[in-house]
Here is the input.
Amino acid sequence: MMQGSLKGAAGLQAAQQQIEALMSSFEVREFSAISQGVSVVLTGDMVMKSLSSSNELVSTADVTAAYAQAMTELVHERNTNFVRIRNAVQKKFRIDIKDTIPEVNAAIEYFNARQKAG
Here is the structure.
């Protein structure tokens, strides 16, 4: 019993270290999208880095569409990484971190919802 809890603690620690490394590298990544000549660039921490347009007049709908496309890419990539961490920890330590780490649980729910919709 004691060995199992030590293995669980080691797995959680490994997961936390991997998540911290992921987030520090992910926050500086850029995700961009273009819609009807409107270009949006978001950073991994979900901050808009730039907004530009090849048109003189820009509609709110075009900005919203470009922002939504960039955010969709960002969220998908972020959730994919959380699931990869979960799978690696599960394989190595034989524990499931989805109920312990909210971001991992949200990532799993994201993919479950995509699978149901798809």
In short: The chain has one domain: 2-117. The mean pLDDT is 93. Helices lie at 2-26, 60-93, 102-117.
